[in-house]
């Protein structure tokens, strides 16, 4: 029971106890007592070994509290002011230890170990035997490479399609606008500029001209110059066999320029 | 058979539980028992040449194997950090404590030391969960620690020592360097530990 006492290098209690046991042994006559004596010897020798150990480390005393403090510092302990009267602490550091503290320490310790990295299949494993891992990893790399390339053109295709659709939709929309307008008011031609100019956006204006040019190209509308030499636009009447008509239409090319200034 | 054994060993090693020869015989070798040692040797060569891993028998009586890396650990900032990393930190702390205290330490001393690092055996730890279980069971099963009861202690006290896996995966010199790095001192500062560490090949 007096373990700590006996362990202290300053005490001779262990020696005293041994000496007493020796004395007692001479008075031993029955087995039970001998057994107790043997038990005592085991205990005593354990203590003796521990004492010897303590001596050994005494030579180059390892200051474990200091080690602990340095570890905490490394792990990123946020030392906050702790009140003197904080009885819970018993000399332990106060402060906040971040949640990745041990991961940080672990990462540092890895260099001191030759641990085999934990082996895992990258894509998980089936019940049946998968091929040897190394090949798997290489194949995996190649597979991702190919997939990425496939993803790229697929994406581009989608974009182009949507572009085309958008253009077509716009063109149709403008044409319908034109036709509706003309239906309501067949004698009033529409000023080209009224149609295409967006007072708020130059870019939109240019887009509108672009879309209208499709309508003209396909022969659904035509541009004429009115008395003021300003272009007007009107839908082409639909005749029987209009395909031939369309090809007979004189095709002219004109360049309309519109600068930002002019637009303003 | 050889490649099957290689895969078997790699998967078994994930949890760092040593691999028994009986398991190897049962699961992989099967009918090829006679050529067991040949298969094992070849598997060992493959592991070394392809993965840089060494198949080590840590218990020649019961024939138990572990895998150890022969390559220096890559250093880098963005390497994967997971629970295994954190556990390794805890293990390194315990191993270095044991070594610096003269190659063995009582459980009371170990836990008192860990308490300073906010690790308590009775409380659930944010990272490690049931720490007592981790230290006393998992680390022991993995052969990182050797924990034995001290005879005639009541209530029972335990003696902590390095396990055979620890002896293979690291060394006294490495752990002393770890301590020195953390404390900003030279390893030779602790003369007897330094001598002891240098004495080992």
Task: Please give a structural write-up.
Among the domains of chain A are: 1-25 and 32-52; 164-235, Structural maintenance of chromosome 1. Chain E (Arc Repressor Mutant, subunit A, Orthogonal Bundle). The termini of chain A are far apart. Chain A is built from ten helices and three strands, in the order H-H-H-H-H-H-E-H-H-E-E-H-H. In chain A, helix 2 (13-26) runs antiparallel to helix 3 (31-59), helix 4 (64-75) packs across helix 5 and helix 6 crosses helix 8. With 264 residues, chain A is mainly alpha-helical. Chain A has helices spanning 3-7, 13-26, 31-59, 64-75, 101-109, 133-184, 192-196, 202-217, 242-248, 260-263, and strands at residues 190-191, 221-225, 231-235. Chain B is of the alpha+beta class and 201 residues long. Chain B folds into two domains: 1-69, Arc Repressor Mutant, subunit A; 83-170, Orthogonal Bundle (Arc Repressor Mutant, subunit A), CATH 1.10.10.1210. In chain B, 51% of the residues lie in helices and 15% in strands. Chain B has helices at 2-12, 21-29, 36-51, 83-100, 107-116, 131-141, 164-169, 172-183, 191-199, and strands spanning 19-20, 53-59, 64-69, 105-106, 124-125, 129-130, 145-149, 158-162. The longest helix of chain B has 18 residues, at 83-100. At the A-B interface, helix 3, helix 4 and helix 5 of A face helix 1, strand 3, helix 4, helix 5 and helix 8 of B. Chain A: Residues 135-163 have a biased composition (Basic and acidic residues).
Strand content of chain B: 15-25%
The spatial strand order of the largest sheet of chain A comes to 1-3-2
Overall shape of chain A: it is rod-shaped
Count of structural domains of chain B? 2
Organism (chain B): Crypturellus undulatus
Protein name (chain B): NSE3 protein
InterPro entries (chain B): MAGE, MAGE_WH1, MAGE_WH2, MHD_dom
Domain MAGE (chain B): 1-197
């Amino acid at each position: 029971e007096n373990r700590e006492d006996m362990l202290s290098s300053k005490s001779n209690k262990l020696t005293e106890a041994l000496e007493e046991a020796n004395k007692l042994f001479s008075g031993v006559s029955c087995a039970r007592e001998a057994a107790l004596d043997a038990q005592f010897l085991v205990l005593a020798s354990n203590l003796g070994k521990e004492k010897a150990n303590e001596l050994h480390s005494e030579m180059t005393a390892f200051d474990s509290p200091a080690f602990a403090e340095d570890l905490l510092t490394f792990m990123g302990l946020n030392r906050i002011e702790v009140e003197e009267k904080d009885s819970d602490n018993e000399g332990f550091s106060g402060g906040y230890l971040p949640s990745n503290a041990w991961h940080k320490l672990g990462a540092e310790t890895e260099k001191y170990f030759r641990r085999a990295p934990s082996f895992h299949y990258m894509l998980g494993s089936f019940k049946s035997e998968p091929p040897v891992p190394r090949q798997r990893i290489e194949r995996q790399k190649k597979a991702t490479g190919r997939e990425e390339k496939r993803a790229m053109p697929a994406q581009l295709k989608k974009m182009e399609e949507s572009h085309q659709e958008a253009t077509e939709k716009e063109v149709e929309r403008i044409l319908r606008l034109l036709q509706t307008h003309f239906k309501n008011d067949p004698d009033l031609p529409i000023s080209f500029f009224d149609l295409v100019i967006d007072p708020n956006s130059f870019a939109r204006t240019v887009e509108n001209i672009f879309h209208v040019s499709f309508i003209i190209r396909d022969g659904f509308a035509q541009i004429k110059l009115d008395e003021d030499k300003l272009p007007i636009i009107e839908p082409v009447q639909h005749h029987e066999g209009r395909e031939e008509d369309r090809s007979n239409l004189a095709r002219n090319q004109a360049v309309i320029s519109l600068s930002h200034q002019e637009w303003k | 058979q050889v490649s099957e054994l290689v895969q078997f060993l790699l998967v078994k090693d994930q949890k760092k539980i040593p691999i028994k020869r009986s398991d190897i015989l049962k699961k992989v070798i099967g009918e090829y028992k006679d050529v067991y040692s040949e298969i094992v040797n070849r598997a060992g060569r493959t592991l070394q040449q392809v993965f840089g891993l060494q198949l080590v028998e840590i218990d020649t009586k019961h024939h138990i194997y572990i895998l150890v890396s022969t390559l220096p650990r890559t250093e880098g900032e963005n390497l994967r950090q997971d629970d295994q990393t954190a556990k390794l930190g805890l293990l390194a702390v315990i191993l270095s404590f044991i070594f610096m205290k003269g190659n063995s330490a009582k459980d009371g001393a170990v836990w008192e030391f860990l308490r300073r690092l906010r690790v308590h055996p009775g409380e659930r730890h944010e990272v490690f969960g049931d720490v007592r279980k981790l230290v006393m069971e998992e680390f022991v099963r993995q052969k990182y620690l050797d924990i034995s009861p001290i005879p005639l202690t009541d209530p029972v006290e335990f003696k902590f020592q390095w396990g055979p896996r620890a002896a293979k995966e690291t060394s006294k010199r490495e752990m002393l360097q770890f301590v020195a790095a953390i404390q900003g001192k030279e390893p030779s500062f602790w003369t007897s530990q330094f001598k002891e560490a240098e004495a080992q090949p």
